[in-house]
């Protein structure tokens, strides 16, 4: 017989549309991040400030009702809308887990990339439907839409991972990801 520190979550069947922004079913919290939520992250601060007049949605994170607590494995689908700020692709804020926890991403639609940084070495994993990106413990991670349609991916992570956003503001992410003449252009941070 299992014992639980919190009320147990029942096994569940979760459905979602792979190509459109729609809630998962059953659905949990939905997070919407606009340009104004991405302060201090894009290289061209003036262009970022100009974008605030419109304050467009950059990405949305739709979660299932699995709580972010030890032992659970929450899931979410992130949709990053296409676009750039002075050539720098739309991206998530990026964070380091506050505990040494890994995470798995699965590309669902569109194209993008998973940028990882351990404080010394950046890594870039190109993502597309059918690609699994593995984030080992101790690597900050950010997702980037490098295409011209929404980029969507599933994330599965230990519920007690935690999100440290200040780490990224202090340390950067190793690379910045720009749209270049030959496609994706990774520039030193
Ligand atoms: O927390 P950020 O950096 O805004 O990005 C959201 C990402 O974090 C997660 O919530 C969990 O790592 C992902 O589902 C999502 O892509």
From TrEMBL:
Record-linked Pfam families: GPI (PF06560)
Enzymatic class: isomerase
Listed pathway(s): Carbohydrate degradation; glycolysis; D-glyceraldehyde 3-phosphate and glycerone phosphate from D-glucose: step 2/4
Keywords, in A-Z order: Gluconeogenesis, Glycolysis, Isomerase, Metal-binding
InterPro entries listed in its UniProt record: G6P_isomerase_prok, GPI/OXD, RmlC-like_jellyroll, RmlC_Cupin_sf
Domain of life: Bacteria
Enzyme Commission no: 5.3.1.9
Keyword Isomerase listed: yes
GO molecular function: isomerase activity
Glucose-6-phosphate isomerase prokaryote domain span: 33-178
CDD domains: cupin_PGI
Catalytic activity field: alpha-D-glucose 6-phosphate = beta-D-fructose 6-phosphate
PANTHER family according to UniProt: CUPIN TYPE-2 DOMAIN-CONTAINING PROTEIN, OXALATE-BINDING PROTEIN
Family note: Belongs to the archaeal-type GPI family.
Name this protein carries in UniProt: glucose-6-phosphate isomerase
